[in-house]
Write a structure and sequence with these properties.
The protein is an alpha/beta fold. Helix content is 37%, strand content 20%. The mean pLDDT is 97. Its EC number is 3.5.1.110.
């Protein structure tokens, strides 16, 4: 973790599909996360932190994010703001099949701040890959979000998924913080710390209520 982090804000897949389309974000409330995405982008611009906008595009016959569809378009909160780099992707991680890693390396970026959607899919994939690439990672917990799932394995609410992935990421992969905490860290030019697996597990075991 760098004492003077060289950050880049990566805004992942803030597209109409998640707001007014067929995959609406449910937790945190979409109004909250969209507002915080905008705040983060504005603060990054003011602080000289480069902003990368990522857009997921699927084949034209896909039920979600179909190329050329309204759902695949960037939401106005992101589309109306300036960016330093644009990445189009078709797989969850913003690194896979893109120039993102090289672009960050060319600029000496050592800390990646992740906002956008979805917490458990494209965000998590990007966070994991960034960690494996040796980058420090920050995850803006209230500028991201999840949807609920139900399949043959079981069901999970959007809140449960968002919380579980956020807890897991903070144990090893990213400093999971609010947008307000991140804004303060950017202003101060200081890093944000994640937790670790051992300490997180020890706390959970200590807090367990005996049967």
């Amino acid at each position: 973790m760098s004492a003077n982090p060289r950050r880049a804000l990566v805004v992942i897949d803030v597209q109409n599909e998640y707001v007014s389309g067929d995959l609406p974000i449910e937790f945190p409330p979409i109004e909250t996360s969209l507002a915080n995405v905008g705040r983060a982008m504005d603060a990054a611009r003011a602080a000289g932190v480069p902003v990368v906008v990522v857009q997921n595009v699927a084949p034209a016959d896909s039920p979600l994010f179909a190329r050329g569809s309204v759902g695949a378009e960037l939401h106005p909160v992101v589309a109306s703001r300036e960016r330093d780099h644009y990445v189009e992707k078709s797989l969850p991680s913003a690194f896979t099949g893109t120039d993102l890693k090289a672009w960050l390396a060319e600029r000496g970026i050592d800390t990646l701040t992740v906002a956008g959607y979805m917490t458990h899919n494209c965000d998590a994939s990007t966070v994991f890959e960034a960690t494996h690439a040796g980058l420090a990672v920050e995850f803006l917990v209230d500028a991201t979000g999840s949807v609920p799932y139900a399949n043959e394995v079981g069901t999970a609410s959007a809140e449960d998924i968002h919380r579980a992935f956020s807890v897991v990421m903070h144990t090893r992969f990213a400093a999971v913080v609010t947008t307000d905490a991140w804004l303060a860290a950017v202003k101060a030019g200081v890093p944000l710390a994640r937790d670790n697996i051992y300490a997180s597990n020890q706390r959970a075991r200590a807090n367990r209520v005996p049967a």
